[in-house]
Design brief:
It is a single chain. This protein is an alpha+beta fold and about 250 residues long. The chain has two domains: about 80 residues, no CATH class; about 100 residues, Alpha-Beta Complex (Lambda Exonuclease, Chain A), CATH 3.90.320.10. About 40% of the residues lie in helices and about 20% in strands. It has seven helices and five strands. It has a five-stranded mixed β-sheet, sandwiched between helices. Helix 1 packs across helix 2, helix 3 packs across helix 4 and helix 4 packs antiparallel against helix 5.
Length: about 250
């Protein structure tokens, strides 16, 4: 695809472009690696443990025990915490405290969601090629035996989402030819809480999301990389990895 170093389009690219065209440019055109905050590491750690749990469950009908689940998540955190990917200055938490928080998040996820879902497929690769021959690819966290695409989220705030407008879940539902989606949320706070959101998506919802993706694809292909609006949280030193080099940053 013209205007990107990637050989396919993904939800991550779509969201990056919609957040800030210049961030998309630096990340996917210039190919500059992006620094992540520790919250991403905690989310990845819990997500990886969930993948292991539901993969085992799909194969043997029994997933990880809670202690195994927690150990798995903490081990991922331990292995990845010193990677150059993560910038520990992005938020006020040490590596040890982040690892302890990961343990609590993992235990809470397992307690509330470990037996809630029965997974049929885990880390499902979805690929779709459009009329122009351009590929869209993504990985669904898991699809349940009753045909629900579920996305795991670890995030600071729980805001009730309109899943019928969620680009990732609706696009994945379109690609997998299903009409039910869910989001399993663990709130990243001192005493974690869980929330489960779900919705049915119609063809109209899928068409709307596909139109949004087409507009983004058109912008990328035409090399239109607009910065985030002035005053946007995305255009701040804390939240932009490219602040030091962007002409709209520092």
């Amino acid at each position: 695809m013209k205007g990107t170093i990637r050989s396919y389009l993904s939800v991550s690219q779509i969201r990056k472009y919609m957040t800030c065209g210049m961030q998309y440019y630096y990340r996917y055109v210039e190919g500059i690696p992006e620094k992540m905050g520790s919250a991403v590491l905690r989310g990845t750690s819990v997500d990886n443990a969930a993948n292991e749990h539901f993969s085992l469950q799909a194969q043997t009908n029994n997933g990880l025990t809670q202690s195994q689940f927690v150990d798995f998540a903490v081990d991922v955190h331990q292995k990845e915490q010193d990677s150059d990917t993560f910038d520990w200055e992005k938020d006020d938490i040490t590596k040890d405290k982040s690892k302890d928080r990961t343990s609590k998040l993992a235990a809470t996820y397992h307690k509330d969601f470990g037996d809630k879902f029965k997974a049929k497929e885990v880390q499902v690769e979805l690929v779709q090629v459009d009329n122009d021959g351009e590929k869209f690819k993504g990985f669904a966290d898991f699809i349940t035996v009753d045909g629900v695409i579920v996305d795991n989220k670890v995030k600071k705030r729980n805001v009730t989402p309109d899943l019928t407008r969620d680009v990732q879940l609706v696009k994945y539902a379109d690609m997998a030819n299903v009409d039910k989606v869910g989001m399993a949320v663990v709130q990243d706070i001192t005493t974690p809480k869980t929330f489960y959101h779900h919705a049915e998506v119609t063809q109209d919802h899928k068409d709307r999301v596909n139109k949004r993706i087409e507009h983004v694809k058109s912008g990328i292909n035409n090399q239109v990389f607009m910065p985030a609006p002035e005053g946007s949280w995305a255009c701040t030193q804390k939240w932009c990895s490219f602040w030091e080099i962007c002409e709209f940053g520092k």
